[in-house]
Amino acid sequence: MKKKIIVLLIITAVAVGGFFYFRAQVYFSHGTQKQNSVFEIKKGEGNTQIATNLQNKGIISNKIYFWFYLKTHDLLNKVYPGDYLLNGEMTIPEIAVIITNPKKVYEKVLFKEGWTAKQMAEELKNHGFDDATFLNMVNNPSQDILSQFSVLADKLKSATLEGYLFPDTYYFSREATPEGILKKILNNTEVKIDTDLRTEIKKQGKSIFDIITMASIVEREVKTDEDRILVSGLFWNRIAVGQALQSDATLSYIYNDKVDAHSLAQTKVDSPYNTYQNKGLPIGPVANPGLSSLSAAIYPKNSVYNYFLSDPQTGQTIFSKTFEEHVANKTKYGL
Which of 154, 184, 214, 285 could bridge 297 with an S-S bond, Cβ 3.0-4.6 Å? Predict the structure, then answer.
């Protein structure tokens, strides 16, 4: 009899322990995916498929726990299709709340490399966000914003956040505020300009602001990685010898155009962004550069070239050593 009681107690203990373990897994378990990732739920996908996909992505530890939670909370077949920003640090209840609430669907917004803050604001407007407030915050950043991101530490006080808005694909919740959107973008910039890059910038005696400004010009001038490092080297060399950059990308920023070669009259415009009239870097970035242009600004390539132009027909960059060669190339390519 005693043996039966002992066996029964063991079975009961195991059952109770198993119940609490299972419950703990349902409510408090985590997946292996630590970073935020976009999880897509397609129209027509069932509960089992969604649970399996979540497990395969490392967002949840076990699809059974997830399915059980939906079942016991009357949430089966109540998941909305869409793109969701999720990670394995979330619990199953937190994930369930997000994907069963249509207000939590994320809007996909693509900011292209070389876009200005104004272009980014226009794209936000296209997705239903408050573009005017966003652009005002970029042009007049608060001390709260400036103090939160170390990448902004050496930014000139008079400068806007132009150049610091890292171009990328972002996912913003539909109720995201302009401040929330801006902080998310700046946080990405903070991550992309990592410790290694910052160490190299400091080693060269430059500032992050200088690098971003140069990178923004390079971004708008040429398109390939090889051309970028050559043009970056060419521009840094011009600065070193006291020669004006004479970048049409800076004039395009002034005139808000996409002209590759401006007129003589346009090169005489009175503006601190005019690198035809002013030596050195302009007073701030003229676009928001991608990682390739940032890398080119940090790791330029020295060459024998001092001039370049873009073939209007093919977009190919034509380099030349002397001014005479450059003038001849301009005539050859109809510029």
Answer: 214
Q: CATH 3.30.1490.480: which residues of the chain?
A: 22-104
Average pLDDT, the chain: 88
DSSP string covering 153-218, please?
A: TTS-TT--STT-S--SEEEEETT--HHHHHHHHHHHHHHHS-HHHHHHHHHTT--HHHHHHHHHHH
Closest among 294, 280, 285 to 237, alpha carbons compared: 280
22-104 CATH: 3.30.1490.480
Following CA atoms 247, 250, 256, 258 in sequence, which dihedral angle do they give, to the nearest 10 degrees?
30
**pLDDT of 36:** 78
Whole-angstrom Cα distance, residue 51 to residue 36? 18
Q: In degrees rounded to 5, what are phi and psi of residue 171? A: -125, 110
Q: How far apart are alpha carbons 74 and 17 in whole angstroms?
A: 25
Pairing assessment for the beta strands 307-310 and 317-320 based on DSSP bridges: antiparallel
- pTM recorded for the entire structure: 0.72
